[in-house]
Specification:
Blueprint: E1 3-7, E2 10-13, E3 18-25, E4 31-39, E5 46-51, E6 57-59, E7 67-72, E8 77-82, E9 91-99, E10 106-107, E11 111-116
Parallel strand pairs: 2-11
Antiparallel strand pairs: 1-3, 3-8, 4-5, 4-9, 5-6, 7-8, 9-10, 9-11
């Protein structure tokens, strides 16, 4: 069964950087219109950044200028480069995308990012 798998999370000091990866596993279909979301346990799910198939990007005001979403089509992988991390960036980060022509949203199980002061 196809799924999205996030990786790259961990513990980092404020001001540091991490790069998250989201790979499509067990699927021959490419990711379409992928995006990153995050959720601090007990809080509302927050949209972080998105990438269209046409190559345009968009991101939330809270991460603008610090986070960059990108993709490698050959690897069928989406990335989230996170710089100048803040304590408020602490959350479980999730990748979401369509696979092929399927209308359903595919979600990863998340990768934890903890930013210490």
């Amino acid at each position: 069964q196809a799924q999205l798998v996030e990786s790259g999370g961990g513990l980092v000091q404020a001001g540091g950087s991490l790069r998250l990866s989201c790979a499509a596993s067990g699927s021959i279909f490419s990711m379409h219109d992928p995006g990153w979301y995050r959720q601090d346990p007990g809080k509302e799910l927050e949209w972080v950044a998105g990438l269209t198939d046409g190559g345009s990007t968009n991101d939330a005001d809270s991460v603008k200028g610090r986070f960059t979403i990108s993709r490698d089509n050959a690897k069928n992988t989406v990335y989230l480069q996170m710089n100048s991390l803040k304590f408020d960036d602490t959350a479980v980060y999730y990748c979401k995308a369509h696979l092929g022509a399927a209308p359903e949203d595919y979600w990863g199980r998340g990768t934890l990012v903890v930013v210490s002061s």
